[in-house]
Amino acid sequence: MKKFALLALLLTVFTIAGRAQESRQDVSISGSGMLEPYVNSSTDVKVAAKRGLGGLISYRFQLTPRGAVEANYAFTQNSLHYVAPTYNYQVNARTQEVSVAYVFSFNFRNWNPFVEAGGGGLFWGNIRNLATTTLDVKSQTTIGAVYGGGIAYEISPSFDIRAEYRGFVTKVPDFGYSPLATNRYYNINNPVVGVAYHF
């Protein structure tokens, strides 16, 4: 929650600072999904994950008519299932993303397709409840690359609707417990739909 409060404070400061300027900034709020692929590693550990649901808050600042920088905060909850010859564990996880990206847009009347690329971190927090079947796991941070593309439809000068695909390439988490290590990287699929406010 502290990270979320800090992000909200930064967005507020940027909003106040940008009041005197033309509409070069926007904030978007979106619903998101987290679809992690099945991983079969060289360490005999197999990892599968349930679909996760969450939210994404993004702030964009236009550097040029087509180029912008974007800061993102996302929150998702799901479960990861680790299977090896000697164990069968499930970890209920609360995942937070903090990332930055460069966004390049194309303008076609009210339609604005865009692509983005950048980097960031995922904070994997384990939830201690009945869904987590081992007490040896801890919270973990992984670093990776974010990329994607989508389209925004302008419904008024102040608002648009956005739909995009985001991908996050990072190391498969082991939650600080070496028997869960896969030594593999994977691509997390992150479809997003939301609304943006321009100011």
Describe this structure in words.
The protein has 199 residues and is mainly beta. The chain has one helix spanning 2-17, and strands spanning 25-34, 39-40, 46-49, 52-62, 67-84, 87-105, 111-126, 140-154, 159-171, 185-198. The protein has a single domain (29-51, 58-198), classed as Porin, CATH 2.40.160.20. A hairpin with a 2-residue loop joins strand 5 (67-84) and strand 6 (87-105). Residues 15-21 have low confidence and may be disordered. Pfam families: OMP_b-brl.
Which helices and strands appear, and what pairs or packs with what?
Elements: H1 2-17, E1 25-34, E2 39-40, E3 46-49, E4 52-62, E5 67-84, E6 87-105, E7 111-126, E8 140-154, E9 159-171, E10 185-198
Antiparallel strand pairs: 1-4, 1-10, 2-3, 3-5, 4-5, 5-6, 6-7, 7-8, 8-9, 9-10
Pfam family, one: OMP_b-brl
Domain Outer membrane protein beta-barrel: 7-199
Keywords: Signal
In brief, what are we looking at here?
This protein has 199 residues and is mainly beta. It has one helix at residues 2-17, and strands at 25-34, 39-40, 46-49, 52-62, 67-84, 87-105, 111-126, 140-154, 159-171, 185-198.
What amount of the residues lies in strands? over 45%
> Which structural class fits the helix and strand makeup?
mainly beta
**Distance between the amino and carboxyl termini:** 26 Å
Task: Provide a count of the helices.
Answer: 1
Averaged pLDDT: 90
Count all strands and give the number: 10
Question: Looking at CATH, which topology would you report?
Answer: Porin
Largest sheet: 8 strands, antiparallel, barrel
Count of domain modules: 1
What order do the strands of the largest sheet run in, or round the barrel if closed?
A: 1-4-5-6-7-8-9-10
- Overall 3D form: elongated
User: What is the ordering of alpha helices and beta strands?
Assistant: HEEEEEEEEEE
Protein name: Outer membrane protein
Signal peptide: 1-20
Keywords: Signal
Domain Outer membrane protein beta-barrel: 7-199
